[in-house]
Amino acid sequence: MIKPYKDSELGKKEQVAQMFDNISGNYDDLNRVISLGIDVKWRKKVVEIIGESKPKQILDIATGTGDLALMMAALKPDRIVGLDISAGMLEVGKQKIAKANLSDKIEMVVGDSEEMPFEDNTFDAITVSFGVRNFANLAKGIKEIARVLKPTGVLVILETSNPTKFPFKQGYKLYTNLFLPVVGKLFSKDKVAYSYLSETANSFPFGEAFNNILQKNGFTNTEHTPVTFGVATIYIARK
């Protein structure tokens, strides 16, 4: 299991919360730089997919500063809940939500994706963007998502993956191993955060391997679509 702070006694969960608290102030700006702005396009695609089922109750797990939750407000659901383990990230998100006059529509909750404070079968749609690779126990987290998702509901996950074709495969390796940590160190006051993020980006199961994990933990219909030469993948799953 990859943890952010190698010499810390804390478990992965606590370390991830601490890391995101540390970088919450400039996370949005840094994200745009690191993904060259393409992450916005990927999230729009997620919103499109979610919109097809006209969900009333939406849960955005690992919501961070609420980028995806804010975008999904355009779908006019009754309620959006953004859940995250980092109170620091949520504070930034709450300010953005207030600025957009959406505080009555989007609720931000500090919580653990592996033990969520929701009833069974609550949500019509659940999204996770760049969050599942930070789960301390992936199988447990996915079972928990299946628990709170309605039987007719849809799960959409956007996560990093590794390009498999030349020359994108080689280019991406260079990018994550060299560019990511360097930019992270220049712009962030947490020196290890972006090394951790690039390390997990390189080692997280993707494509069929991740589909198999979904299928073992409560989901039947799973499909995946690589985006931008395979540097990220969108997964759609149903119970």
How would you describe this structure to a colleague?
The longest helix is centred in the last third of the chain and has 20 residues, at 168-187. Helix 7 (168-187) runs antiparallel to helix 8 (193-203). It is globular, with a radius of gyration of 17 Å. The two termini are 27 Å apart. It has helices spanning 12-23, 27-34, 38-51, 67-72, 87-99, 138-148, 168-187, 193-203, 208-216; strands at residues 57-61, 79-84, 106-110, 123-129, 149-160, 222-227, 232-238. The protein has a seven-stranded mixed sheet with strand order 3-2-1-4-5-7-6, with helices on both faces. 40% of the residues are buried. It is built from nine helices and seven strands.
Structure at a glance:
The chain has 239 residues and is of the alpha/beta class. The chain contains nine helices and seven strands, in the order αααβαβαββαβαααββ.
